[in-house]
Specification:
Elements lengths: L1 H32 L6 H4 L18 H25 L1 H29 L6
Helix pairs in contact: 3-4
Length: about 120
C-alpha cells in the first residue's frame, strides 16, 4: 500500500526542492546585483497611483461584498460546469438533473442579490 504513495512522496520532495532552490537563487542574485537601499518614493505605499487620502480602515458598503461573492459564485459555477459538460455522456440523466438542481440554487442566489440591490450602484 505504501508503494502506491511513493510517486506522490517523490513528487512532493522534488517540488519542495525546486521551490527552495528557486527562492534561494532569486534571493542570492537579488542581493548580488543591486544594493538594497531605497529612497522615500520607492519605500512609500502605492495605491492606485496616488497618495491615500483616507483612513485605510474605512468601511465599505455591504454591496461591495455582495458583488464580490457574486463573482466568486459564478467563477465556481464555471469550474463545475466545464467538467460536467465534458462528462455529460457518462453521467446521463442523473448528471443532468444534479446540474439542474445546482444551477437552480445559483439562480435563487442571483435573484436574492438582485432583489437586495447589490447590482445597482447609486
Amino acid at each position: 500500500m505504501l508503494a502506491n504513495y511513493l510517486p506522490v512522496l517523490i513528487f512532493l520532495m522534488l517540488a519542495t526542492l525546486l521551490a527552495a532552490t528557486l527562492l534561494g537563487l532569486g534571493t542570492f542574485f537579488g542581493r548580488l546585483g543591486v544594493r538594497h537601499r531605497g529612497d522615500a518614493e520607492k519605500l512609500s505605499a502605492y495605491e492606485c497611483g496616488f497618495e491615500a487620502f483616507e483612513d485605510n480602515r474605512a468601511r465599505f458598503d455591504v454591496r461591495y461584498y455582495l458583488v464580490a461573492i457574486l463573482f466568486i459564485v459564478f467563477d465556481l459555477e464555471i469550474a463545475f460546469l466545464f467538467p460536467w459538460a465534458v462528462s455529460l455522456s457518462k453521467t446521463g440523466r442523473f448528471g443532468l438533473g444534479a446540474m439542474g438542481i445546482f444551477l437552480a440554487v445559483l439562480v435563487v442566489g442571483f435573484i436574492y442579490e438582485w432583489k437586495k440591490g447589490a447590482l445597482e450602484w447609486d
